[in-house]
Every structure is written in C-alpha cells, then in structure tokens.
Amino acid sequence: MIVYWTLFLFPSLLAFFGKKRNKRAYEKNFPSIDLLWFTSILVLTFIIGLRFEVGGDWVAYLKFFEISQNQSIFELLSPFGDPGYRLINSISGQLGFGIYGVNLFSALIFSLGLSLFCNSLPRPMLALAVSIPYMVVVVSMGYSRQALALGIAMIALVGLGKGKQIFFVFLVLIAATIHKSAVLLLPIVALASSKQRIWTFIWLGIIAAIAYFIFLADAVSTLIKHYVEESYQSQGAFIRLVMCAIPAAILLIWPHRFHFPQAEKKIWQWFAIISIGLFILLFLTDASTAIDRLALYLLPLQLVVFSYLPDMFGERGELKQLLIMLIILYYSAVLFVWLNFAFHSYYWLPYKNILIS
Prior knowledge:
Layout: H1 2-17, H2 23-27, H3 35-49, H4 58-68, H5 73-76, H6 83-94, H7 98-118, H8 124-142, H9 144-161, H10 165-178, H11 187-192, H12 197-216, H13 220-229, H14 237-253, H15 262-281, H16 288-295, H17 300-308, H18 317-341
C-alpha cells in the first residue's frame, strides 16, 4: 500500500502548503508543463505503466495483447472493436515490448492528459491529489483502455475550455478508437456552445452520426445484451456515483461562486447535470456496470469542483486551509476504504513493478 499512499500524500502536502495560482496562469493560455509536473508525469508513467499483475483486468488485457499479435492489418484497423488500442498492442508486440509497451504508452498519455488538465485549474496540486484515489489508482491501473481514452479526453476538455471545438472533437474521435464509449462526450460541444448554436448542432450532429455508425452501431446489440438485459452489476457503483454527485451538487447549488472562464461555465454545469442524472438512473435500472463505465468520463468534474472550492467563500486564509484539509481528509478516507474494504482491491495488492519487484 505504501506506493499508493506516497502517490497521494506527496501532492496533498504540496496542495496544503501551496497557494492559488494567478487567474492568468490558467485561464488565458494552454497549460504548460514545468519541471515539477514533468517529474510528476514521469513518476506516474513509471508506476502505472510498469506495474506487474496489478489491476482487475490484467489477465484480460494479456489475452487482448495475444490476440492482436495474430491479426492482419485489416483486422487491426477495423472500426468495429477499438482499432487504435489494437494497433498499439500490435506495434508493441512487433517491437518486442510486450504488454508493458502498451501499458507504458497508455500511462504516458494518461499522465500527460491528467497533468495538463490539473494545470488548467486554480489549484493544480489539489486537483492531482483528488485524482489519485480513484482516477489514478483504480482506473489507470485497472481499466487501461478507458484510462488511455480518458487521458486523451482530458486534453480535449482543456482545449474545449479554451474555445477549441474542432480540437475537442478530433481528440474525442481519437479516444473513441481506443474505447468506443468516448464518442458519448461529443454532445458536450453542442450543449456547452454559446455562439452559433444552430450551426454547431448541425455539423456536430453529422459527425456524431458518422461516429455512431463507425464505432457503436455494430456493438449496440452486444452492449445492450450484456449491460442491460443480463444486468451486469458493478460492485461499488453507488459509492463512485455518489463521489460524482457530491461535487455536482456543490456546483449546481452555488454556481455563482465558481468563477469559471466563460468558455468553461456551461461545460461543467452540464457535467454536473449529467452526473446527477446518472446517479438517479442508478435507482431506475439494473445496468449499474454500464452507468458506472459512462461515469468514468465525468471524473474530471471532481478535480474541477474541489480545485475551486477552497476559494469560493472569500479571502480568509484559515478557511481556505480548513477546506483544503477537509478535501484531503475526504479523499484519504476514500483511498483507505477502497484499499482495505473494496471487493476487488486484492487485485491491486501488493503493488508490483517489473523494475523493482
């Protein structure tokens, strides 16, 4: 457990003793990576990418890798079945890097996306600390494909927050070649658009329709069968959706206290609305796994809300420090409970790395 706790405590300490960044540093320009964040990316990539027999889907990804080695170029690039991820597996095998090449590349892109996203917020280290217990430990080390797609999606969201709609759509489509569920992020462009909304709905509708037929149409019947008709259940879905619903509720109750850049305001309001909607939907259907997997793309909302929260209620330094401490204590409790009591946590314990085990 020491690796997971070290990952969490280091950014937590920096967040507690750090200060809010100047608005210009995160509102105007695309975020940059300094030495501290470059080091963070390397550490995260090393721990996530070179893990050994860590994560609930470790065996499944090994089988996926083996299958990709025997596929032709036409089978690899077929849009029905995540061609981007298959291609990464095939290339890693051809280069002799095995599953570790796949995991290392996925970890690098995820870590880069996470770092850029955190650096687009007023308190980057607090956002990083918030991401560790679930987004990093559980998702990036357990669901490699969706973690890679999520990393690309976070870069896309940073771009969308700067008004770069085409950039967002392009990266989401790239993410969809890794995990087809990423196409569900496309409507965010139309929902968050404040200018030329009719034109945005038209061109995005065309792209979304094409993306649906390329990535989802062939798989819809299978997904419905497994996730709806057979009612696949996800252990802990309720807790994870509560974790999304809490920051969503904070944002929707006090929207005027979040001084978002104009281009970002509607994005996060819609993320909050969708988070609450999925939480309610959990009680109306048995397909908890489907809802749980969709909610993975809403995880960035937690980083956003809790990065802004310490500065929402004025300039009192003591109150800010108290709020930061409460956020850190909350996520330390999340990490403690998950590592010690989660149904599948034994797949993550003990942490093993091919270079240090």
